[in-house]
Amino acid sequence: MKHTAKNLGKVIVVGSGAGGLSAAVRLANQGWDVTVLEKEATPGGRLSAIQAEGYSIDVGPTIMMMNDVFHQYFKDLGRSIEDYLDLVRVNPCYHLHFTDGTCMKPSIDLKELLDEIRSFNPDDVDGYLKYLAQIHRRYQVAREKFIEKSFTKPSDFFNIDTLIGMMQLRTLNNMYDDIARFIKDERLRISLTFQAIYLGVSPFDAPSIYTLIGYVEHGLSGVWYPKGGMNAITQALVKLLGEFGGSLRVNAEVEQILIEQGRAVGVRLANGEVLKADVVISNADFPYTMENLVPGSHRGKYTPQKLNSMEVTCGAFMLYLGVNRRYDNLHLHNIYFTPDYKYSMDELFTRQQLPQDPAMYVYRPTKYDDTVAPPGKDIIYVLVPVPNLSSGIDWKKETHRYRELVIKKLERQGLTDLSKHIEFERIYTPETFQNRFNTYQGAAFGLAPSLFQSGYFRPHIKSKEVPNLYFSGASVHPGGGVPVVLVCGKLVSEQVLVDHNLSWQPKMMTAGLSASY
């Protein structure tokens, strides 16, 4: 059964990433006529999956946290998340492998976690408890005053309430220095700051507020796995879109956002087709939108020079492997560090050199989910942070060599004879991210969340120059990460309603319905 639309107006969403789908679903739920345009053959963008030879391998994000955001998202739509996603709590959160041979396995059980910290350094138990005591309030402030609030005009940000919030967040030092106030053991410091890589930045540069990520993972909501992989989130959003009367068009690349008399009025596709709309939302990476989709006279301050001066995140070298055996020694999430944490970060972010002894993240969804691979086989997903394309690295020359280097390191880390068991393989480099996902300079995580590229200083969800033009995704406020991008879509949908003198109309909780297209 399809939701009956109220025909409030026509909305076109460019791109079917999490932010675009989030906004699209919410507006369709409220009665707008919504069409999502996706240039690829499948929806999701970086939240899509590679489907081949019986394997279903997530392309991008793999760690699900802040599960309350997902539950609230479905509740706002009058739906129960259980009808769309089968969520499994992950414990321990991950395995952290250090070069001295130790392995930390942070638990969601506080006693177990404190016992593990004690085994690394007894003196740091007290420090960790002090960290917990101050981080919860900072997390609440971040959610209430920054993440779940849009900043579309100066008064939204430059006010007493926000100033007090910034003082409470204590954002002027970096993640590593902030944690070092509480924790002395280097391995434990790493365990509470490596999450900066989720954002594509160095913990020695990332604002200290991002120490809340470790707290969210093993001190608050935990880490979750959606059965079917993270792409199941995309599939759930697409299903919701259909239930509320919206439509998704794949293989529909947008060439330009059309602006007439200063207002966004639709889009032109690469095949020449013109689609008119009352509202246009670009979920393409913000710098790409400005450089390629918005005509030059309507870009405001976001000239090519301005975009080139903005700080972007690192790139990612990705191996997506299907193997004809099981590696049961691997957890769902596995991270392998290097001997010198600071040197590795500087090599990657400051010197922009290809790490010769790379830190690696390995994801094995088959630990929790047998449906994503053929019986008796495994998925080995490998992410190596590498410099973005501004480094000048020639990936046509480096890809094979670097692939061999990574495989050999994995084999030394316990993935015995990995090279002999690979039966399916795909490799993505920063060039792939630039060419396929339109990310600026091949940055895997969008614009960097530096202090002066956060909050009001980050690209806004609403165009200042062009009425009826909006933006969603990791490169606009409030930033990256799947739950935060979902919130971005929520903020966009609410802004559209406000700009059209409407308000959100809550829905009664109902069971999931079958989508029809």
Automatic annotation (TrEMBL):
SUPFAM superfamilies (UniProt xref): FAD/NAD(P)-binding domain
Residue ranges of every copy of the Amine oxidase domain listed in the record: 19-497
Pathway(s) this gene product operates in, as recorded in its UniProt entry: Carotenoid biosynthesis
The entry's keywords: Carotenoid biosynthesis, Oxidoreductase
Xref: InterPro entries: Amino_oxidase (IPR002937), Carotenoid/retinoid_OxRdtase (IPR014105), FAD/NAD-bd_sf (IPR036188)
Family assignment from sequence similarity: Belongs to the carotenoid/retinoid oxidoreductase family. CrtN subfamily.
Protein name in the entry: Phytoene desaturase
Taxon lineage: Bacteria, Bacillati, Bacillota, Clostridia, Eubacteriales
